[in-house]
Amino acid sequence: MTQQYLVFGNPIAQSKSPQIHHMFAEQTQQDLVYAKQLASIEGFKSSLTEFFSDPLAMGCNVTAPFKEQAAEWVDELSSGAKLAGAVNTIIRQPNGKFLGDTTDGPGIVQDLLRLQAVKSGARILLLGAGGAARGALQSLLALSPELLLVANRTESKAALLTSLIPQDNFESCGFDDLPSYDKPFDLIINSTSSSLSGEVPAVADSVLANAGFIYDMSYSDKPTILLQHAAKLGVQHYSDGLGMLVGQAAESFYLWRGVRPQVEPVIEALRSEL
For residue range 34-54, what is the model confidence (pLDDT) as tens digits? Predict the structure, then answer.
């Protein structure tokens, strides 16, 4: 019998997850069905329970605004999901219990490594202190950076993130404090929603211009406003977050099926359709 997978969200019509997972399944010769479902804020947990009442329902993805509710619904949380306080992947385990995990962090790191944008001992600047940043912390710190600096417009929110994993190479500051860091950053990651609203984060041009690589978690059919600005400043290496989208999906696929799909052909296929 064909096993069932699903992505829940609100809105959900724009989700590329079914397309991505169908490409993964074809590539790895896996027999599965992957669909998408709109859920209401009030009825999300009931929708989860109903989906998993089918014994062929083996897992699901969860996107905005349900990741925190998903973390409450599952029986167990991975260490990454505990840290993020959110779940984007639910796995039915052999014992019948449900494990909640987050693949956003592994997804971005997988893409950064694919792009050769980061290596051990790098100086990394993470812009923003919301859910997207929080979900990436554990995976970025696993790269053993010389420094992971979280910067946010409101410094106290950045400080809250550093309090979650106290270690010497993990610091926080406000956007206005960034010019005081003399050494340039090897990698700057934008986890804020600024690109979605057509704005560049309020970070000094001198900080951006000296970056080795700039990565924007957002993506569109053309370079984001941040990447356009970076190019004007002379930054040579940059990328949007389409590869992160595919990378986190690939990690979910691996957790469910035990097979790692190739992300490159899927990224290329999605890029051609933007």
Answer: 999 999 999 999 999 999 999
d(CA 90, CA 101): 6
List the alpha helices (DSSP H) in the chain: 17-28, 44-52, 67-73, 79-84, 104-114, 131-141, 155-164, 205-209, 225-232, 242-257, 264-273
Check residue 139 and give its pLDDT: 96
Q: Using alpha carbons, list the distances in angstroms from residue 178 to 64, 121, 142, 149.
A: 30, 20, 23, 9
Of the candidates 67, 119, 183, 232, the residue annotated as catalytic is: 67
Burial of residue 72 (number of CB atoms within 10 Å: 0-12, 13-18, 19+): exposed
pLDDT at 150 over 90: yes
Listed residue (87, 22, 21) closest to 253, CA to CA: 21
Q: Tell me whether residue 16 is one of the annotated catalytic residues.
A: no
